[in-house]
Amino acid sequence: MLRFFVATTNPGKLRDFSAAAETHHRERGGHRDVNASTHSSALSEPSVMNQSLLDSDVLFEPLPGLKEIPAPAEDEPTFAGNARVKAIYYSSFAAGELVLADDSGLEVDALDGAPGVRSARFAVDSQFIAAGIDDIDRLNNLCLLERMRDVSAGQRQARYRCVLAAARDGACLFSGDGTVEGEILTAPRGDGGFGYDPLFYLPEMGKTMAELDLATKHRIGHRGRALRDLLRRMPPTR
Ligand SMILES: O=P(O)(O)OP(=O)(O)OP(=O)(O)OC[C@H]1O[C@@H](n2cnc3c(O)ncnc32)[C@H](O)[C@@H]1O
Ligand SMILES: [Mg+2]
């Protein structure tokens, strides 16, 4: 059993990690079944993944006591920098354990890459006030729509980025990153996911991220890709 304590305050990210663990569990079953005619490669990629990982179930548990731990500053200029800072910081609250941190966000071409590492704080940074709305995801989405009001249909390209970092006892051990390309809609669609998902449209799927089930989001999304990259880079002995 490979267990990560996930150090995130975002319940949407935790749901994504649960979906990842389920996929891995299911695929391990599929991998053992020599008669299976189809083999999905959403998390397990036998040619590149170390044997100990293929033999393990992967478990993602919320870091115990996270609510009581003051959040670290996320002031690094890159997702990689912030993921590393969070993983190292939170690992000191779980001695001897593998602690996983996620830094992610949205880059919009028409906004010169904003909100980027400031994605969680976009509406606050923009001093965007909408009366009666206390839900930060909704506020961030309204802010994004407002900032893109004059951007034409062909100019709305964007991508999600995710960097995951794993640390133990104050040392960052390995990391992974993932990206998914899309476009920003002019009105929200779908009620799944979190954050900017209702506005993030995937042309090849004909759906927003908020219209996908979690297994599909894991397969094509930035977090799923970052996780597969991290597991691929993980040393065989840990
Ligand atoms: O730092 P932690 O505690 O992990 O939680 P957070 O929500 O503050 O996370 P970030 O600092 O990494 O900010 C990322 C923001 O980017 C957005 N985001 C990242 N991944 C997303 C996803 O899969 N779907 C929708 N929005 C996402 C969302 O607004 C997040 O709040
Ligand atoms: Mg954060």
UniProtKB/TrEMBL annotation:
Question: Which reaction equations make up its catalytic activity?
Answer: dITP + H2O = dIMP + diphosphate + H(+); ITP + H2O = IMP + diphosphate + H(+); XTP + H2O = XMP + diphosphate + H(+)
Q: Which residues form the active site?
A: D103
- Identify the residues that bind Mg(2+): D103
Biological process terms in GO annotation: nucleotide metabolic process; purine nucleoside triphosphate catabolic process
Pfam families assigned to the protein according to its UniProt record, in alphabetical order: Ham1p_like
Keywords tagged on the record: Hydrolase, Magnesium, Metal-binding, Nucleotide metabolism, Nucleotide-binding
Q: How is the cofactor bound?
A: Binds 1 Mg(2+) ion per subunit.
Q: Where is the composition biased (Polar residues)?
A: 35-46
* Chain intervals for the UniProt region annotation (Disordered): 22-46
Q: What is its EC number?
A: 3.6.1.66
Name a GO CC annotation attached to this entry: cytosol
Composition bias (Basic and acidic residues) maps to 22-34
According to the UniProt record, what class of enzyme is this?
A: hydrolase
Gene3D superfamilies named in the record: 3.90.950.10
Q: Which GO molecular function, any one, fits this protein according to its record?
A: metal ion binding
Under the heading PANTHER family, the entry gives: INOSINE TRIPHOSPHATE PYROPHOSPHATASE, INOSINE TRIPHOSPHATE PYROPHOSPHATASE/HAM1 PROTEIN
Q: What does this protein do?
A: Pyrophosphatase that catalyzes the hydrolysis of nucleoside triphosphates to their monophosphate derivatives, with a high preference for the non-canonical purine nucleotides XTP (xanthosine triphosphate), dITP (deoxyinosine triphosphate) and ITP. Seems to function as a house-cleaning enzyme that removes non-canonical purine nucleotides from the nucleotide pool, thus preventing their incorporation into DNA/RNA and avoiding chromosomal lesions.
Output this protein's name: dITP/XTP pyrophosphatase
